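User: I'll paste a sequence; please echo it back and then give the predicted structure.

Assistant: Echoing your sequence first, then the prediction.
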Amino acid sequence: MCTLTNNSRVEALIRWHHPEQGLIPPVRFIPVAEESGLIETIGAWVLEEACRQLAHWRDEGINNIRIAINLSSHQLRSASLVTLVTECMQRYAINTDELELEITESVAMEDPEHCISQLIALRNLGVSLAIDDFGTGYSSLAYLKRLPIDTLKLDRSFVRDIETDPNDAAISKATISMAHALGLKVVGEGVETQGQAHFLASIHDCDLLQGYLFGKPEPADVIIKRLRSPICSL
């Protein structure tokens, strides 16, 4: 499944389609996959499927799309990660500007020195890198400035009440300002109302917006119809 931002970007999402319970969110099955040692296999499959889908869209005449893929802490610790990404990009002729890899703030801070080393290796491939769920962990700004990232994603927990909670509004404003000062783009996550979009994009120059205002997670064969038409204008 994929979700859209307010420009030509999609984020690859994984769901477990249970025959009786329907779509099960990753918060329920990813911890089990990590404990059982299956997470690297699942992560490799997600990367493969996302790149395959991107190549298919390109064959269908849909170009200038960037797809974002989340990396788990187990993948980031894997010595084969860079090779895996390299081979997958080569297999599907993925350009460096078509792929973005995301890690959460908490994952980055588990072992910051190793994380920085891995991210530098990935950055040397030319792919874009992003920190997801920013603001929910306890990252050190000393490490943040060393991470070779391009994008910072403001967590939805701050965006949700941004119109009514002065603290959330202040944190969001400060995060956008700090990220821009560091030369980073900012994605506001969980945008569901025009008011949230106006606060982030029009008032505080948030670069990209993502959330139900622009579309809910959809299968690739459904989202292709929206990729063929203008997504949204703010």
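The chain has eleven helices and ten strands. The chain has one domain: 2-227.
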